[in-house]
Protein: TniQ domain-containing protein
Amino acid sequence: MRFGPTGISVTPAERYESAAGNRWPMSIMPASGELLSSWLHRLAYANGIPPHYFGALLEAPGENWSARLDRALPGRILQLLEEHTHIPLEDITALTNAPDPLAVLRLPLRASPQQSCAPKTQATWLQFCPACLAEDETPYFRRDWRLATRVSCFRHGCRLRDRCPSCGQGLAPFSQKRLVPHQICAWCGAALCKRTRPATNGVRRLERLIDDLLRLQASGHRMAEGRSLPDLLGSACFQFSRRPMSIARLSHRDRYQLFRQLTDGQSTPFGTRRSSAIIYWKRVAQVAPAWGGLVTSFSDAVLPRPKAGPCSNTAGPNLADLVQAAARLDQQRQAL
Ligand SMILES: [Zn+2]
Ligand SMILES: [Zn+2]
Structure:
């Protein structure tokens, strides 16, 4: 069609729907180890919708809608996400923490984001490594950061954070009403990537041992008498703020302090009541110093040497991989 003497032509564009079907304009691939809520916030941002309104679009309940979906993703929303992103259902489901054998050790999700304005003695629902966020090509939040037994980054060796370094509030990216990426605090607008101090070697060894033991539990190994390791670790009560609290109820600051006390041999804030859970915590802290050397020599014997890279100094071998490698060796021996 041509108009007037200037000869401007107007050509109707192909309808978006006929070109792209019901797919949203931008489809974001989940990153390795990413938490569902993190992927949803990135997906919303990429498609030009602030997370608060994206939750309404998905008809997800609650102000902290995305964090709730981490724990239980209804089939209706899963189907809708698959239809609009064309990412397989199983890949989306793998981003959630459901079903969750470590539920007792997950940081608690409060009823509303306002309650995340907690004093520094209270737990928040999500931690993060500022160095990881600063280094990521597209910053994202990891599933492991919701575990109360994690206090440092295995990659960078620095401490995690559980609140904004500027305003001190817990994270609330699901409440963001402006088109701002989730590595910016939804309360005050400050960047979350301000560096933290390194964790001590003792704390990192204890944390790594607990992580290895939990991986073994998740891969099917059970403790004697069928006891659950997460239940045992999660049921111990520590005295903080004059109240007995389980590890999942403690802020990052108190959990880091607890790990230091356990590894430095200082008096620990256990209550006066002795329990099998407290005895177990002490036993794990006692063996943690020897653990790294044992796993490394086992790793050298049964696994190929990893390529040198930024992770090689801090990440260390994974116990679940080692046990699987040992099982394979045993099978091969029996087959001879
Ligand atoms: Zn990191
Ligand atoms: Zn803030």
